[in-house]
Amino acid sequence: MTGRVRSLWAWGWQDKFPDAAARKGLGELARVLVPTATPALRDLPGEPSVPAPRVAIPEALADFAAQDLRDRAAHTRGRAFPDLVVGFAGDFAHAPDLVARPRDAAEVARVLEVCEQRGWSVVPFGGGTSVVGGVDAELARAEREAVVSLDLVALAGVRELDATSRLARIGAGTFGPRLEDELAPHGFTLRHFPQSFEFSTLGGWLATRAGGHYATGPTHIDDHCHALELVTPRGTLATHGHPASGAGPEPLRLVLGSEGALGVITEAWMRVVPRPTFRASASVAFARFEQGVAAARALAQSGLQPANARLLDPDEARLHRVRFDGTAVLLLGFESADHPLTAWLARALELARDHGGTVVAGPSEKSGEGEAGAWKQAFFAAPYLQSALLSTGMLADTFETACTWTQFPALHARVEQDLRAAGAGVIACRFTHVYPDGPAPYYTFIAPLALGGELAQWRVLKQVASEAVHGAGGTITHHHAVGRTHLPWYRRERPALFGAALAAVKQTLDPAAICNPGVLT
Amino acid sequence: MTGRVRSLWAWGWQDKFPDAAARKGLGELARVLVPTATPALRDLPGEPSVPAPRVAIPEALADFAAQDLRDRAAHTRGRAFPDLVVGFAGDFAHAPDLVARPRDAAEVARVLEVCEQRGWSVVPFGGGTSVVGGVDAELARAEREAVVSLDLVALAGVRELDATSRLARIGAGTFGPRLEDELAPHGFTLRHFPQSFEFSTLGGWLATRAGGHYATGPTHIDDHCHALELVTPRGTLATHGHPASGAGPEPLRLVLGSEGALGVITEAWMRVVPRPTFRASASVAFARFEQGVAAARALAQSGLQPANARLLDPDEARLHRVRFDGTAVLLLGFESADHPLTAWLARALELARDHGGTVVAGPSEKSGEGEAGAWKQAFFAAPYLQSALLSTGMLADTFETACTWTQFPALHARVEQDLRAAGAGVIACRFTHVYPDGPAPYYTFIAPLALGGELAQWRVLKQVASEAVHGAGGTITHHHAVGRTHLPWYRRERPALFGAALAAVKQTLDPAAICNPGVLT
């Protein structure tokens, strides 16, 4: 990240934030999408307002902790919509008191030890891209004297490679691009490309059970993890490394998704794969979204396991600049480092046609071309747009779930109806991942921003969306994690006795409850 | 199981136990395999010796509990080698005091309630095929007044089917054959065929993280489970049903592998698939086992995901009556209900040839033919042979693990050397499952039985095998579970803090520690 500066309030690089002309254009586009909107360019925030820290840096952490204003401001929160609103207002009143950047696992343990002794909260911090309040220093304070942001950036890099077993030991603080850059010379890749790829870390992916590149088969980062190390206030929990095991409940699975509430993930052995050399892709259009849903189901249940099988409804296709003719589109792609995929794609297209699809691009053997290329570009640009839209007076946000194929039609209808009733102007849907038993629907909605009442407005929409998803049987999150935002619905989804079990685990590993208070438990 | 009687001491049906002539032939075969052996036909056990129960059936359980001798004898233990030895001696001194067969989840809860009130141990009992002491009534007693065997046989059958989402709600006490029989009319199958298939239940598979049919990809029952219900002494834990989720640590994964120590699994929503209509299979011989290992690795890392990819070393090929010429053999098979698999098999055979393999059977599009058919038959007969060999004065047993491809050569050499030094005459190896990061090696060993000192002899061999596997980095079990036998090595493999976390969970769900005492925790 040398030389480039991350925005203190918006998504991503400061220099990639759209300029006034671009934002004006965006505002006009928004008005096309949401006719009731009256977009207006707002002034961008000036210098952040950051209070003095409440405590001094303890001697034991002096070598690797800092307290300067900008650094603390940058660790105040994630990038959920309310984070953007508060950041846009220049409000950093709840910045953490210090930022620690331990350089090894022993220093991570030292941070936990100091915080436990003093009763300070610790927020593990990877790339800070949480959209669910997972790194919210204000809420983590929990009436404690101080909040320490434990930034894992110094625990970075690929440390060891076992090419025979296709495993790489990687520091938790490694950002996506560096991780891929260091694997590339060896011919390997993790193939985990969440939307936050550029600004998020391996440790964050593991702690939040991130979903990634593959649209079918093993899609969560969980499935690509061979072993990991978690530093807790009670010591280090290093899991046994094995391809698979039947020895009791799997320890890895208790750590994956623990969101910093049980300790800090410091490194992991990850399953890597050779860079694909064979590709086969195509785009299929459907007159009706329902046809695309049926095709996606057939594909998910076929055993063909395409790497890409993303279904976009007409609004989503439009938003991602893939198609503008009111059709839904299924982006299909296979990849392999071992064999040509002609037979795979041929059968997938047969299935798509059987459900009313028309092949509108491909088959192609190239990567990142045509509609899939347009989609990929728009996909990684989307979070920038959200920030930019906010600055034009528009509210744009996303939420996601997973449900069974049987549940989907009612869930979809309810989401659309309830969000529409709550004031959303555009409600677009795509399937980010599809499984034999159901899809992972992902919703984007846009509404005119209620200036001055942005947070209250967003809370209503979030409440409506979450109630719809939960009420229709979906999980409260397929890959955005729970954090603090999803907690009420997570508590309803989670079996009560599992909640009690998790609390007992927390009490065992973090008896002073200093680790990311308010998350999960 | 109507009309047929299970042996009280040996594997499987009483009427399938080999007669004297067959056992004599087996003894002669054993002598060929282990020249130092002097097989001798031993008298089969007579009537079991079962003590009177220590307690009467409590009023609350009277409707569904029994105490007759044979029933209690049949619930005394599993089918590990020491179980066979003690059963062969007619010793049922530690039979449980009563056998409860609850007819619904409420009656399961009632059993737990009564046992908690009285401080009795409860051993959840599916098919009783544990080979690791998982249902051992003697060890479960733990100095308590009584042991109750909680047999789930009455919680059986496919209760609900969602054909669209390919999900079936199935009672935990459903045996393999019934489960498949009830899915078949709907065109579905679970495709989970562990060696114990005929005599084991869905609940047992889930509680022990059983490995099954598929040799690659999602091989454990864990991956086929959508949701489940666990009745604990503190109430019912029913997990949320979803195709996938990122909402905190996955509750399912804490229950899977809990081996009855956290409560009783009463039912589960399982992912089912249509019965395959396309098949493609072949057998490939290798002059050297190492070539087969390299081919298996290439295949596991290819992304082709064959349903069958079992590598047998020369001894294993001989034992399973597949090949007798000293070559190793790779049994390869693809299956699909969606598409022909010509391209898949063609590439797999190319990979096998690249590593020195010779196709010796196939390609075929039929199921269960030739060498694969011979193997399958021998596979399901093997546990019968173990019992029969015991009755001829031979010790035969198996153990298994999973390790990385990098670890395998040293692990294999150590297992062979140490077991040989400990007196094993034949040590055969096969890969039951293969993953991108490593194989699951499965070992069979045969030795002359030290009559009168069978248990001590077995304990030494088990100790040597477990030390070799654990010492070389393998997991103590890939799919046989931990039970009580693997506990010492499990405790070393399990991160200490995970052990503490699990103990805290146990304390939360089963504070009186009545559920399968001595297992896991």
Features:
homodimer; 521 residues; alpha+beta; seven-stranded antiparallel β-sheet; 18 strands; globular
**Major beta sheet, strand line-up of chain A:** 15-12-14-13-17-18-16
Please give the largest β-sheet of chain A: 7 strands, antiparallel
Shape of chain A: globular
Could you name the CATH class of the domain at 278-471 in chain A?
A: Alpha Beta
- Distance, first to last CA of chain A: 34 Å
Structural class of chain A: alpha+beta
Segments of chain A where pLDDT lies below 50 for 5+ residues? none
Q: Would you report the number of β strands of chain A?
A: 18
Radius of gyration of chain A: 23 Å
Strand and helix layout:
The structure is a homodimer of 521-residue chains.
Chain A: H1 20-33, E1 65-66, H2 69-74, H3 81-88, E2 98-100, H4 105-118, E3 121-125, H5 137-141, E4 147-151, E5 158-162, E6 167-171, H6 176-183, E7 188-189, H7 202-208, E8 225-232, E9 235-238, H8 251-255, E10 264-271, E11 273-274, E12 278-286, H9 289-300, E13 308-312, H10 314-319, E14 328-336, H11 342-354, E15 358-364, H12 370-390, E16 394-400, H13 408-421, E17 426-435, E18 438-448, H14 454-471, H15 487-493, H16 496-509
Parallel strand pairs in A: 2-4, 3-4
Antiparallel strand pairs in A: 1-2, 5-6, 6-10, 7-11, 8-9, 8-10, 12-14, 12-15, 13-14, 13-17, 16-18, 17-18
Helix pairs in contact in A: 9-11, 13-14
